[in-house]
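Q: Hi! Curious about what WYL domain-containing protein looks like structurally. Here's the sequence.
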Amino acid sequence: MGLRTFIEDKNLPSEQLHRFFRGIGRKFAELPLEEFDDNFNDFKMKLARHADTELCGDDRLELYREMYDLLVALRKKRLEGTDPTGRRRIRATYDLGKSFLSDAEINLAILKALHTPMTQEQIAYDVLRCTRNAIGTRLSALQNGFRLGDMQVKIAPPCHRQYGSTVHPILLPLNLTEVYVLLSVLGEAWSGRDSLDPHAVIARDLAEKIYFQLTDYARGKIDARLEERGAKPEKGEAPWYDFETHRAGDRKKMTKVRRSRNWMYFEKSRRRVCITLACGDAEAGDDEHGEKSAEAPIVYGRLAPGKNPAFYLKDKSKNPAFCFVVELDDGSLVSLSWEDVVDIEEASE
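A: Let's find out. The predicted structure is below.
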């Protein structure tokens, strides 16, 4: 029986393996199972070359998992042989340590998988096909801080035996022209906007992280143009990310960034929010039951970017650069100024 026939007979996941068999691994497609051990090193080298030259992202991880599952199935197969029993088994093994996946790539795969909370056992088997102890070591390292170049990421300790991560690691090998365009666009996102606008705060923070990673040569080439556009970051900020959003440096600035991230979460998720304002207004100052309140005015509703309000809290809230729009529970739209916000938190539905 050939290798491809065995895969089909066992109904094994094989999308990426079949891509390999159609390309650089075509000579292995019909390899007799009895010859697999003798050809395994060559097979593994060709598989790694295919992964490194043809595949990216999730396809690489899926090829590893398919290869692992294939070896598990092959090792269970009893072959005709020359040992005393007249039968033998395939001895080749395949795991993370023997795979084409790099250490950093494995950690990034874990971070992406943890967007859906998982137990240690689920990560070990469903994601990486490895032992629970091997994953435990990696999870401990991720809690202490995983570094890739200047990037550092920390995940939170487990909650109810489940690990989770909200970080989306993005790596972009850019040339200097692309860096210039990216920083210019981010500069436009914060330039002329209210300093409390979370869009502007996050855009500036992203620009600082990018600028931090540039060499003095690169900065010298683009600084003058960025200054002309009002888009030059101050000095750069290390691209660190952890579950508490703590970072060495300006704590006040980090509090501002953390609050902005919370704000943007409410915006993208369309959660109902409770916004406490610093100024009084009869229409915006009702409590949740429509009663007038002597306390700090509160607005209940959902953030509604891009919509045209029918009511403005005051003159400054008419300028889109200094305001945001809230859709109240009755469906009406009100424009509020960033400077009037004391706090925002999620409200019950």
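A: A fun detail: Residues 244-251, 281-293 have pLDDT under 50 and may be disordered.
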